[in-house]
Design brief:
about 220 residues; alpha/beta; Rossmann fold; five-stranded mixed beta sheet; 9 helices; globular
Length: about 220
């Protein structure tokens, strides 16, 4: 039996009998990850994909695209990829930094992900306020100070130097491998920030990050 999921055009056809429908339930799960960045984030998630494929090939699939766009524009590109594909994506993850983008664009992107979610596909806004480097930093240390994104670079370099991994640079291809031993710590720290930011809008949740939600879901395939 093929491990490929059924095409969207085939799901409702009469020949998809009950027996075959039961088989669909155990098909591998497909995830579409669309990032604002074209280097740092795609390389981070590609490392995750490589690790999963090396141990659990056929169980879960990741498709990753670095679009070089942000907030609402990034969501539109992700939706276009999802709807234009013959693959049924169970999850679509939109990964972006809040940076200095208009608060309305940030918050509306999160709201639209919720409104676009249906029984077939769930959309997730994985924002980081202000930047994905906060997520990286939380692997080493809990931080709740509202820092400018530029301040994370020297702090990351300091921590990485302490463990013998040199200087932090945005295009490093080994960030996931460096950070993986501290993943549980990062998830716990991100959840603490999430609790502090409860009832705040994403634009006002600084610091804060939702990237942990994807890593928490994938964690059983990474250990």
């Amino acid at each position: 039996m093929s491990l490929k999921p059924p095409k969207k055009s085939d799901v409702s056809k009469h020949w998809m009998n009950p027996r075959k429908s039961k088989e669909i339930l155990i098909q591998p799960e497909y995830h579409l990850i669309v990032t604002e960045g074209t280097d740092t984030e795609p390389q981070y998630f590609e490392s995750i994909k490589t690790r999963i494929n090396s141990k659990y090939q056929g169980k879960i699939y990741l498709e990753i695209y670095g679009e070089g766009d942000n907030t609402l524009s990034l969501l539109k590109k992700a939706q276009k990829r999802a709807l234009g594909s013959s693959t049924i994506f169970k999850h679509v993850w939109i990964v972006f930094d809040t940076d200095d983008f208009p608060p309305d664009h940030i918050n509306r992107t999160v709201e639209k992900c919720l409104s676009m979610t249906n029984e077939e596909t769930e959309y997730h806004a994985l924002w980081s306020n202000q930047c994905v480097e906060l997520w990286f930093m939380l692997h080493f240390n809990y931080i709740d100070a509202d820092l400018h994104r530029s301040e994370y670079f020297p702090k990351l370099t300091e921590w990485m130097s302490n463990i013998g991994c040199g200087k932090y640079e945005k295009n490093r291809k080994d960030m996931f491998d460096i950070l993986m031993p501290y993943l549980d710590n990062a998830i716990d720290n991100a959840k603490k920030l999430n609790a502090i930011n409860k009832n705040k809008t994403p634009a006002n949740s600084s610091p804060g990050t939702q990237v942990y939600k994807l890593l928490e879901l994938l964690k059983p395939y990474l250990k």
